[in-house]
Design goal:
Keywords: ATP-binding, Nucleotide-binding, Transport. The chain has 559 residues and is α/β, with parallel strands linked by helices. It is built from 22 helices and 20 strands. It has a domain of 240 residues: P-loop containing nucleotide triphosphate hydrolases (Rossmann fold, 3-Layer(aba) Sandwich), CATH 3.40.50.300.
Length: 559
Amino acid sequence: MLDAPVLSVKSLTVAFGSHTAVRDLSFDIHAGETLALVGESGSGKSATALSVMRLIEREGGRITAGQIWLGAQAPIDLAQLSDHGMQTHRGNRISMIFQEPMTSLNPVMRIGEQLGEVLRRHQGMGRKEARIAAERALDQVRIPDPARRLDQYPHELSGGLRQRVMIAIALACRPDVLIADEPTTALDVTTQAEVLKLLKSLQQEIGMAILFITHDMGVVAEIADRVVVMRHGNTEEVAYTGALFKAPQSQYARDLMAATPKLGLSPLRPQVPSAEPVLKVEGLSKSFARSGGFLKAKVKVPAVKGVSFEIRPGETLGLVGESGCGKSTLSRTLMRLIEPDAGRVILAGRELTGLGTQALQQARADVQMVFQDPFASLNPRMKVRDLITEPAYLHSGLKGAARAALASDLLEMVTLDASAADRYPHQFSGGQRQRLCLARALSVSPKVIVADEAVSALDVSTAARVTALMQDLQEKLGIAFLFISHDIAVVERVSHRIAVMYRGEIVEAGETEQVLRSPHHPYTKRLLSAVPSPLPRKPGRQDLQLPSHKTLVLSGGVT
């Protein structure tokens, strides 16, 4: 007989105004167990998590029915607690890791202060005692040199380290239940693998229950014991992970699995005919000045080191690598949003690196960019009609009826209804907003589009639709894409060729099948070994040990 669940949600219903976001949801989680909530954006996953934490009211929602029982012995119904009563349990007995660590951490408080605040409030520690405990908490989540990190600010840490700080804060009081809301979505595959392994290790040590929210079925297979599949606020299926992957009962679960990119199973894209490159990058380099400390001279830190590649019309080059390897700096440097230190960028036979301001502005019509966060990329005060045609207005002065006609054509091109022209960005889903960003890039008929993590924040089915649209447009219009991503399975699906970037350099490049089937560089092998398998782990399977940086240096000659 199983022990009583440590968290039991019964018939939970959550509403935002007249809209029901979660409808009659029930599940239990036992100590030491991981339950995954999966589904597309808008399925009700995050609304469920916020309701369990009783933060839903701060987001404009409310619990209209149901109970949320916390504790195996003498359980407490969190749904009935006042905000003041909830403060005793929130962050103490039940904690949450949010999706974006940079916005979850206070940018003006040092790491030690943020960790110490939790310990002082819930554990009654003094400042000195809290600092010692905070250092121990950072060491527990495998952050190197924890004493030094206590005095740093969030912006001084990488994405992976910030996420580890969030985990340390959430686990500081050794909670009974941990809610992890998309904690690895924005992380590269090697950092994701390390974070998942860390969570499993800490779970075994503390014995806590984990409610893990994700849209990545590969992560579900890696970490979950049981799965709840949600769609439009309804429960589609509840199953043990192995049973779900072996024989999903609901059509929606089958659709989710079909949309999940699987490394080695995506059909390879046929190579484009040989032609003159539309984009050539030769020996591009960029360094940034960093303070050497008090009364010390600034030091130059290289971000991009002598990178060269070319892309032909109608071709997609996938650029992959860990966070901090220089991918985004490279993309901004080749567009001269950041000035390069050395090298050449030749676009459609014209060198960009020597152009003056006016000539550069004209040349940028040939190379456009689609950024990672579509909401931050779109002006919230502008209607879609003006947003997606703004580049055409700036480059050619398009106005009036011609501009309105272009807006209609662009919306049709990205499969959005013409009525969308009169709406604002906040009235669209994440996938629809990314389509608007793509439409805006297409408004000046570019020869090259740089897609910088353009689908990493989208759920798998939405990402599949957006990448399929990009491929369709490429075949119709002959556009070249530089597709930057940390998701190698997605890169495999969309790319003709792949370049692997490590510490500012391209360490391996070639046709997609060649690089993924027969990788030569140890760093490429490390990236591939860290990709979560979309199949549940078998009993007794050993955790994959990733090569260390030292191993990479010794075996691959990377400096």
